[in-house]
Specification:
The chain is mainly α. The protein contains five helices and no strands. The N and C termini lie far apart (about 30 Å). The mean pLDDT is about 85.
Length: about 90
């Protein structure tokens, strides 16, 4: 799976692609592909800053596209956890 590679550029491109798919209006790709969505959410804690920034940007688009969906609550839950326990990543 591309999100588990050591190559930052590959993880970055994978996050950006998945983010676009998860934000498709009227679609619930994250619900259809739970494993991919789970891996996408793990990128909030990626070791590379540029990947973390990309996943935050993609998550913002996902939240705007479907603010009341299951995906939204999962994204917000992960973000809340990370800002509470890994706040140094966001400063």
């Amino acid at each position: 799976m591309a999100l588990q590679t050591d190559q930052v550029d590959v993880r970055l491109k994978a996050v950006q692609l998945l983010g676009r798919l998860f934000a498709l209006p009227g679609r619930h790709v994250a619900q259809e592909y739970r494993l991919l969505f789970s891996e996408f959410l793990k990128r909030f804690g990626d070791k590379a800053v540029e990947v973390r920034i990309a996943v935050v940007r993609c998550a913002k688009v996902c939240l705007e596209a479907n603010p009341s969906g299951l995906e939204a609550s999962e994204i917000l839950g992960v973000f809340a956890y990370l800002t509470t326990f890994h706040s140094s990543w966001f400063t």
